[in-house]
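Shipment paperwork, digital attachment
Item: protein structure file
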Amino acid sequence: MRSVVHAGAGDQLAARVPPAPRRRRAGPAGGAGGEGGMTIVVTGASGFLAGALRRLCAGRGIGWVGVDTAPPAGPGDIAADICDPSLAGRLPAGADALVHLAAVSRGPDCRRDLRRAAEINILGTLNVYEAARRAGIPQLVFASSEWVYGDSVSADEAAPIDANRMENAYAVTKIAAERLLAAAAAGPGAEGPAVTVLRFGILYGPRAENWSAVEALYHDVASRDVVTVGSRATARRFLHVDDAARGIVAALGRRERFEVFNLTGAELVTLEAVVRSATALLGRAVRIVETDPRNPSVRDAGNRLARERLGWEPRISLREGLATLGAAGPGRAHA
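Attachment content:
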């Protein structure tokens, strides 16, 4: 989503507005809600993950209202900026959850304009939370990232996060947004929506731009005889976008005041494994050249909590996921 920044977008957050009455679904506190008959509001509705979520919701009978600065893609969508103080007045009454996907999500874009990244990813998130509170929406699902754990680490949701040691600007904005949401949702006298934070692994899937390493390597294998990587041992729990969308749906209906779940792939996958799987799928032979073989980056963010509490697990194997990439056009890789 491309968001137009409004100066002073967070000013309205200082005023406490009485919450609108909430429509809560039946079911145990903290448990998963039903699917059919639900309605969700989704920011960043024109984005990659939102596209997969829209398709999934359509198949499961979940109502959808998209919010984006891009022209509305559906009859119920809203053209709006997440930093706009009037956002609450434009949200539909009776929505069951607000799924906040809008963000400046590429590291280079965050570094290039730190102020814009902070305004959208931090103040914009607070504005979305306040809009959900004022609209009486009982749950905010916030899209965070495994980047909050740092570069080379094995961690679960309870791992300490030290923003003072973090150099990645995108990760810093996600850490700040998470902590502010925790203060708003679980602090003394909290009255807003329950917050469910989903720390996504590195997503991949068919798209024409903003590739992750998976898409970039797949298309390098398809078009080149030599594939260059930093270290072939660099590894992530890569997650197909369709599995990520299922994770969002699995999280709908939570009523704990503040929860965090890692939504990551089933296992660590090295860059070499991505290349080898792509060569097998495409019937190609390539040579791998490493530019920094002694310094692999391995981030292993486990997903046990999501399996146990959300009943979610990734289903799409690397080979199956790579098979969905054939139609993607040229793009730029990012982690």
